[in-house]
Amino acid sequence: xxxxxxxxxxxxxxxxxxxxxxxxxxxxxxxxxxxxxxxxxxxxxxxxxxxxxxxxxxxxxxxxxxxxxxxxxxxxxxxxxxxxxxxxxxxxxxxxxxxxxxxxxxxxxxxxxxxxxxxxxxxxxxxxxxxxxxxxxxxxxxxxxxxxxxxxxxxxxxxxxxxxxxxxxxxxx
Length: 173
Known about the structure:
- With 173 residues, this protein is an alpha/beta fold.
- The protein has five helices and seven strands; from the N terminus they run H-E-E-E-H-E-H-E-H-E-E-H.
- The chain has helices at residues 2-23, 73-85, 102-112, 126-130, 158-172; strands at 42-44, 52-54, 63-68, 92-98, 118-122, 138-142, 148-153.
- The strands form two sheets. The protein has a five-stranded mixed beta sheet. Strands 1-2 form a two-stranded antiparallel ribbon.
- A hairpin with a 7-residue loop joins strand 1 (42-44) and strand 2.
- The radius of gyration is 20 Å and the shape is elongated.
- It starts with a helix and ends with a helix.
């Protein structure tokens, strides 16, 4: 009788773990950086490599960092939303062009539109690693003190902007 109870107990435990895992939203990836200082960025800008994007230069304002690439299909899907929200609702939007070729990225923005005040070139992905980027697109909300307050993995839709990101931005402004 004992030889049936132990496998059954193991099965029940595994079934519970599976049920808990299936209820989680895969877009809500945990980030160890929430409420921690945003990692340093000191990278050249895509359209003017003589200028640099520096996190320290953005202190005092709430801003978004959108990680994107020209080879990323979901990045193209979220671009109309980013174009609409750029500069609206007091939103400051910067890009981090992740593991991309600069010529391809410039062409992509010229073709589809450029919602960014500036987009830093992270060709080797080191800054993306510092931010814990899983893939593109990802968006971070950074407060005036330079702390990461929210992270979203995946494309931003109009609904997601209204229901999740904008309330976080407004609460920090």
